[in-house]
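Render this sequence as a predicted structure.
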Amino acid sequence: MNAVELSGIRKSYRLGTTEVPVLRGVDLHVAQHEYVAVMGASGSGKSTLLNIIGFLDTPDAGEIRIHGAPVQRQDDAALSGFRNRTIGFVFQSFHLLGNCSALENVMLPLRYRGEARAAAGRRALAALEEVGMAHRGAHRPDELSGGERQRVAIARAIVGEPEIILADEPTGNLDSKTSDEVLDVFARIHARGRTLIVVTHAPQVAERCQRTIRVCDGQVIDAAASAAA
């Protein structure tokens, strides 16, 4: 079964009176439990593609299916709930709340679901343990290194046990050693059965994935398996 299927996805943005096409009829599938990289030059449309897969942005045309079911026709409340249960997000700039501890940041997706604080705390601590950060749960983001903040962000992405993890340049702000450590975490997450889609400009990141999807001028030009797969 495919975890993600895109058919005829188009997206444009308006700059003043000019309409700028970003995605031009993208057809794409990602199999369940697959680990893929999305690569392309700046402005190629790769981040927009990821945002559309994660329902952070809406296509102008085309269809999105998650595990075989069309989902973008749901209203905003239903779509938000579906996204919270099904998809976890990891961003280059971490997007952690500075006035909250690492544990509190990881609890957020569960609290948005209405889960009781005590239960959410136990699950958040388990997620931090999974990424090797349980000992730093009481620390705020400004007390953590970049790699530690990214691990906390990954714990937040997986705490709700989503089936799909989307990561946008997750190693972009990290040095090579820390990047390798974060990629090791991703490899363990993938080994536990999750689907991972990672936007990256770094060949060493793509080499760790099973397949590389290349985007150019808003179109998928290649979707081959990597040599390491």
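Summary. Residues 176-191 form the longest helix (16 residues). Residues 167 and 226 are 18 Å apart (CA to CA).
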